Amino acid sequence: MAEEKQKKTGEEEKEKNTVPQNSIARMYLNEEERTEEKKEHKKSLVDMTAKEKRLLEKEKLQGMGFQKKMEYFFMYYKWVPILIIGVIIAAVGGFRWYEHAKIETVLSVSAVNTKAQDFTEEQEEIRKILGAESKYEQVSVIGNFTTDQTGKDLEYYSQMSFMTQMQAGTLDVVIMPETMYKTEQRKGILENMGTVLGEEVYKNFAGYENGDCVIITDKDFIEDYGLVYDEAYVCVLKNSLNQENAAKWISSLQ
Asked: Architecture of 103-251 per CATH?
């Protein structure tokens, strides 16, 4: 049986050799041989053990220069650095989100009609007054609200922003001129200052007769907050979430 197979193979080889090199038949036979070689190669890779595959990989790399090795690595293992980068980005993003989630605004103050743009010193001073020592306890002082030409109400965009923050409960104290104070007082959005400070403390402030504001005329205060008016009406909003902290800060202004 083996002799017949060997004889048959020999005859096939002889037959192949008799086919002219440039003929269509020869091209077909060459293609057939390459296909068989690919099948054998594929089969041999499949049959390899994991250890044999690693050794083959090592041999390939040993025969390559540095540039070829880098090209080979990025061609066949480009998903590895991409995966590593993705994991790093996810970890950093998750950490930042976690850190941001722990931040708590302990007091939010808005100064209307101010020339000042940086309130860093004022924020730190308020933090000390409140005893907010944790890095996650934040004090916000903003000066992005302006009144319209009459001075009695906020201009349109300031009004929209003010209403949004007030309804969300993210605004606690507003420093405003007298003309705007009278408008906001009629709206009924200002908290009774006797309730916030306590009647005994409130009696020490100018504006006690109004019931819902304290009036500050201290020049240093006016200058520090960049106010363009001489009398600052300091009010606490009814839906403030930090009225206790507002009371501590306002009490320190007397």
From this structure: 3-Layer(aba) Sandwich (3.40)
